[in-house]
Amino acid sequence: MQRVELAEGLIWWPGYLDRAAQEELAADIGTALGRAPLFTPRMPRTNAPFSVRMSNVGPLGWVSDMDGYRYQAFHPETRAPWPDFPARLLALWTDLSGHPAPPQAGLVNWYAPSARMGLHQDRDEQDFTAPVLSVSLGDTAVFRYGGTERRAPTRSIRLASGDILLLSGDSRLAFHGVDRILPGTSTLLDEPGRFNLTLRRVTPA
Ligand code: MD3
Ligand code: FE
Predict the structure, then answer these.
(1) Which residues in the chain land under pLDDT 50?
(2) 165 in ligand 1 pocket by Cβ < 6 Å?
(3) What is the CATH number of the domain that holds 17?
């Protein structure tokens, strides 16, 4: 298993999940989305829609609307609690995060082929000492990352289905984004596009 340290604390395991494991996780996510459908987040203030659609699993979920970015325990449209973490997703955190406390939020991002995510930092959590773990499923994404200041130079890698990233230490507050999806690069899903699953802690343990 290849383990690549892209920057201090930014670890990449290309092809960590084999095809069978990807299929199982994709099925778990399909089940969760049956209970907590994808929603379209909106930018605070402008109310402009994100091109990425989202849902969550676990006790807390990330949402964004006119009132701001936040974590909350229920779906913004159905008002139902988020589905439980799939056990297979929790196992990846145990195996790879190096963090003693369990994740609290499992954000599910869905990228249709035209979706993008602009360069940003993840700073809505109260505990930056905990890492973030990211799993890619479906079509390859062109992922860009830089430093902790927006003007720092950036580099790009292609995140393929089954790849895992760990964002820890000095990279926990790195700027990052998704420039584009490369449709037709994976046969995992029934439609073109990509899921990204991120596991996070929100509050101090
Ligand atoms: C680097 N998601 O949900 S995952 C996000 O592919 C997000 O959907 C992207 O950025 C996606 O916030 C990138 C990889 C990732 C996740 C969190 C990070 C990279 C990160 C936090 C800090 C630094
Ligand atoms: Fe992010």
Answers:
(1) none
(2) yes
(3) 2.60.120.590
- Does residue 167 form part of some domain? yes
Closest CA to 30 of 83, 76, 102, 95: 83
Give the number of domains in the chain. Answer: 1
Q: Ligand 2 mean position to 176 CA, how many Å?
A: 6
Ligand 1 centre to CA of 146 (Å) is 12
Model pTM score: 0.98
Measured from the CA of 122, which atom of ligand 1 is nearest? 21
pLDDT, one tens digit per residue, over 132-162 is: 999 999 999 999 999 999 999 999 999 999 9
Is 122's C-beta closer than 6 angstroms to any atom of ligand 1?
yes
- The minimum-distance atom of ligand 1 relative to the CA of 176 is 1
CA end-to-end distance (rounded Å), the chain: 31
CB 196 within 8 A of CB 111: yes
